[in-house]
Structures are given as structure tokens and as C-alpha cells.
Amino acid sequence: xxxxxxxxxxxxxxxxxxxxxxxxxxxxxxxxxxxxxxxxxxxxxxxxxxxxxxxxxxxxxxxx
Length: 64
Prior knowledge:
Elements: E1 17-19, E2 24-26, H1 31-43, E3 52-55
């Protein structure tokens, strides 16, 4: 799923994408890099380390 968002304050590394529930944030999401992210991360479970700018899994920091 994709969604529109206002400023994510990481514009210098954009376009940006995030994959949940892992919370892996990707920089420089060109069509070629998105193909790589889809193939390596979404289909095979291996984040593309060269493009990762942050990782914040869902549930991390929850106290409940």
C-alpha cells in the first residue's frame, strides 16, 4: 500500500519509502531502486542495506 504524506523531514534523501511492520525506511526510491526493494525485501525478506536510512519496527517502545 502507498499513501501520501506531508513533509517527512528527510527530503534530501528522497523520494522516501517505508516498509511496515519492519519499519525499514528507504532513501533514493527511484524506479530501479524500488524494483530492488520489492524483489529483495518484500519478496525475499532481505532489506536493501545500501538504501536503508532508518529502522523502527512497529511495537518497538510500546509499554503495553
